[in-house]
Amino acid sequence: MAAAGARTAVAAPWRRSGDTTRTDLIGLTLIAVAGLAWWLTWTAPMPMSLTGFLLGWLVMMTAMMLPALVPVVALYARAAARGVVAPVGVFLTGYLLVWSAAGIPAYAGWRALTPTATSGSTAQARWAGAALLLAAAYELTPLKTRCLRGCRSPVTAFTAVQGSLARPSVALQTGARNGLWCLGCCWAFMTVLVAVGLMHPWWMVAVAAVILAEKALPPHPLIPRAVAGLLLAGGLVLLSTPSVLMS
User: Fold this and answer.
1) Which of 19-23, 137-141, 179-183 has the lowest mean pLDDT?
2) CA 44 → CA 30, 53, 59, 87, 215, distances in Å?
3) How buried is 83 (Cβ within 10 angstroms: 0-12 exposed, 13-18 middle, 19+ buried)?
4) What are phi and psi of 43, to 5 degrees?
5) Among 124-128, 133-137, 186-190, which is the least confidently predicted range?
6) Given pLDDT bands bounded at 50, 70 and 90, which one contains residue 16?
7) pLDDT tens for residues 209-240?
8) Do residues 103 and 57 make contact, with C-beta atoms less than 8 angstroms apart?
9) Could you give the C-alpha distances from 219 to 66, 149, 209, 214, 215, in angstroms and in order?
10) Which has the closest alpha carbon to 191: 117, 96, 94, 102?
11) What DSSP string describes 174-243?
């Protein structure tokens, strides 16, 4: 009964002015944190060590993912303010742990491609082109559609919880589950960023804009097709004219 009550508390719609004010404050806080993360990502060099890379990766994910996460966190925070679920920080920790773990294979790929990037070879552009084609193909798969549906429907994620969200371990798992949905949506986009060397902030801006559009806009079958078309076109350009990336 307690578990069901906690799930209902998260999923239920609140209308009171206090809840609205709190939600707005949470949204503004997350946007501010994302803005700070963008500034750090834009100005700080990517360290070569694993620890430094993972810290930089986490900052980058914070910049790119937090704006799209605002509706989910706001929904959870309303229940947390009433004391029926664990604090918001626990939920966010689970989410960020997933993306931190994803930074380990990203680091391996980045280190493998770093010599290519520093040599001025067009091979990096061809790798980026191949990554764009991979992302284009994944965009139209049932798995991408399912993961995107999970990201767009935070109520579904909360009502599927086994156990009480008042327990920190359950809240942590719920945040991690939401992070897995996000990772399932976006891993191909992150592969593109790794392929271009994580040194092109405008690529980050473009990818973050696509991610936000996919999650925030009302679902429509034309959206994934349009995104896939753009990715396909970009991949073909880089494969045929790799000097575009080097300029």
Assistant:
1) 19-23
2) 21, 11, 10, 31, 28
3) exposed
4) -105, -25
5) 124-128
6) very low
7) 999 999 888 888 899 999 999 999 999 999 99
8) yes
9) 20, 9, 16, 8, 8
10) 102
11) HHHHHHHHHHHHHHHHHHHHHHTTS--HHHHHHHHHHHHHHHHSPP-THHHHHHHHHHHHHHHHHHH-TH
Residue with tokens 């966190």: 73
Mean pLDDT of 127-133: 93
Cβ-count burial of 131 within 10 angstroms (0-12 exposed, 13-18 middle, 19+ buried)? buried
C-alpha span between 203 and 45 (Å, rounded):
16
pLDDT confidence of residue 13: 43
- With beta carbons less than 8 A apart as the criterion, state whether 190 and 111 touch: no
pLDDT of residue 67: 87
Q: What pTM did the predictor assign?
A: 0.84
The number of C-alpha atoms within 13 Å of 219 and in the hemisphere containing its C-beta is 9
Sign of CA dihedral 43, 215, 148, 135: negative
More confident residue, 58 or 199: 58
Angle at 13 between CA 35 and CA 149, to 5 degrees: 65
Two structure tokens written together for 170: 């359950």
Task: Return the structure tokens found at 58.
Answer: 């986490």
Instruction: Identify residue 40 by its one-letter amino acid code.
Output: L
Q: Please report the sign of the dihedral spanned by the C-alpha atoms of residue 92, residue 95, residue 101, residue 102.
A: negative
